[in-house]
Amino acid sequence: ISEPKIAAFLTAMRLKGETVEELTSFVKVMRSKAVKVDVDVTGAIDLVGTGGDQSGTFNISTSASFITAAAGVPVIKHGNRSASSKCGSADVLEYLGASIELGKEGVEQVFDEVGMAFMFAPMFHPAMKHVMPARRELGFRTFFNILGPMVNPAGVQRYVIGAFSKQVAEKMVHILSNLGTDFAYTFNAHDGLDEVSLTSQSEIFELKDSVVSTSIIFEPESIGFQKVKMDDLMGGGKEENAKILTAIMANEGTEAQQNIALLNAAFAIQASGKVETLEEGKELAEDALESGKARKLFNDFVDATNDAMGTFKY
């Protein structure tokens, strides 16, 4: 299919609006075509956002992923370079020295060693290379922003997914239910972020025991976080976002940067089943940062990716 035809299809679907049934079918097809990663996903989680919120924040879910892993929750993150923002998860990790273009065996080795792995989407969804040029050229979010978070090649059964709108968050939780997912939080912040936000309330949907809950309105103050201004969460390009991520891992970020990473990690830790309450998740997240475990895990992760790249010679 030619690039103009791909772009036309993506645009038409954007204008029409995708149904839950259509998106469920798309996810099934993408999962069936993916290169599978064979690891034990018991209790493992993926923290991911749809992107496309046009906010310009730093890599919040990536920061939260390392805190979550350092708190003892296996994390298998599936991500990509930026499609419409300045810096995606793959961009910032690569800038900080990680080898991101690992295949199946490399990811499995890193996960077994560190309890945290990053799967670079093009390595596991090879057909997607035909779509990326059109997505970049269009410059706006498409249904692939919605599909991407739900096609984790390791088959994780627990998800924390931020969406660029309440409507998409609601669609995603029903798609994950259709797919038999064990547990999921999907959410959208009232400020537009595809994260649980510190600048506003967030609307959160829960999938548990095959039941989708009606949305709840979450206030960050309810677990002891003060609201901040959006400017406090801004990132930039790779260099700026790398500095912020490094500072957070060292427990030296600004209060706003640290707290939004901790907040999203708390949701992930609870979603994993490791703890019962969000407050307990917050405590484990804070300990992971303050003890230095997050910084060590991040450094170990970077080293392990480079070892795997050398071993398997991709």
Short structural summary:
The protein is α/β, with parallel strands linked by helices and 314 residues long. The protein has 13 helices and eight strands.
What is the element layout, followed by pairings?
Elements: H1 3-16, H2 20-33, E1 46-49, H3 60-70, E2 75-79, H4 89-95, H5 104-114, E3 116-120, H6 121-124, H7 132-138, H8 143-147, E4 158-162, H9 166-178, E5 183-189, E6 202-208, E7 211-212, E8 216-218, H10 238-249, H11 255-271, H12 278-290, H13 293-312
Parallel strand pairs: 1-4, 2-3, 4-5
Antiparallel strand pairs: 5-6, 6-7, 6-8
- Mean pLDDT across every amino acid position: 94
Count of DSSP strands: 8
Order of helices and strands: HHEHEHHEHHHEHEEEEHHHH
Q: At the third CATH level, what is the topology name?
A: Pyrimidine Nucleoside Phosphorylase, Chain A, domain 2
Overall tally of domains: 1
Sheet of most strands: 6 strands, mixed
Helix content: 40-55%
The count of helical stretches stands at 13
Radius of gyration: 18 Å
Distance between the termini: 28 Å
Q: What does the oligomeric state look like here?
A: single chain
What is the 3D form?
globular
CATH superfamily: Nucleoside phosphorylase/phosphoribosyltransferase catalytic domain
Strand content: 5-15%
**What is the CATH level 1 assignment?**
Alpha Beta
Instruction: Please identify the structural class as seen in this structure.
Output: alpha/beta
Q: Can you tell me the CATH architecture?
A: 3-Layer(aba) Sandwich
Spans where pLDDT lies below 50 across 5 or more residues = none
